[in-house]
Amino acid sequence: MAITERSNGQQARGQPDQAARPPEGGPAADGPGPGPERPPGPRSLGEMLADPTIRRWLQRGVVALLVLAVVWVAAGLELGVAAAVLVVVGDVVRRSRTASSVEAWQKASAVERKTERQLKALEKNGYRVLHARAVPRDDEGVSDGRIDHLVIGPSGVYAIDSEAWDKRLPVRTLSHRKLFHGPFNKKERLDETHWEAQLASKIISDRVGFEVPVQGSVAIYGPSIPWKVMRVRDVDVYAGNRARGYLRRRPRVLTVTDVERIFQAAEESLPPKYPDSD
């Protein structure tokens, strides 16, 4: 069932709960000064397993070990190792081709600019935006993830990914748990968006000293989207040209001081993925 936004400014059914407000005496009362920082700790096993990239490589490793064992018994160690390597390489190539065959990757920068133009129009309403921000995945700041647009405003904090998909393939959902683009299940794409939003939330929260929820979302350009906003696997999904409306119709939950403090924390703790990205 599609989730539609209400034009009267009330929160739509199924939309995220209001972002957690700082406790009394928190940032709104204390002013925009920096909050206490928490020293980064080692990643737990659960956090590592929640990383979609790590999960993919673990799955490849398990399959490769099984292939190695079977071929080793049947034809020897050398052929077993070769078969295991081919399995890993073949899966990497397959995933790459699957994504590029249905997603107009060469238009990615163009759709990001479209979303950027929409978000720029919200600046007069008190929104701050950071573009192409890396999400550090360890204490050394190493990251292969990226949030296309991190939006901080009166209605909360949002991690928006702009996606260019093949307009010839329909987009559909199943029970708010599955998203399909034609025959392709977009589970991994949604899980990565959600995971990066949760990680950004943790990083920013540690920096400011209070909880800052970050809602992940995907703005899709190309195919027709038969709903206004749909939550699938905890990620909001909508047509790319609705990005501004998606943010504008939500209730105010942050003060001007909150917005500025969170923006400064995000700017300091989430480095630009590319030089001059903002």
TrEMBL record:
Listed Polar residues bias regions: 1-13
InterPro entries per UniProt: NERD
Biased composition range(s): Pro residues: 33-42
Lineage, top ranks: Bacteria, Bacillati, Actinomycetota, Actinomycetes, Streptosporangiales
One family name in Pfam for this protein: NERD
Keywords, alphabetical: Membrane, Transmembrane, Transmembrane helix
Domain (NERD) ranges: 107-227
Record-given protein name: NERD domain-containing protein
Record organism: Actinomadura logoneensis
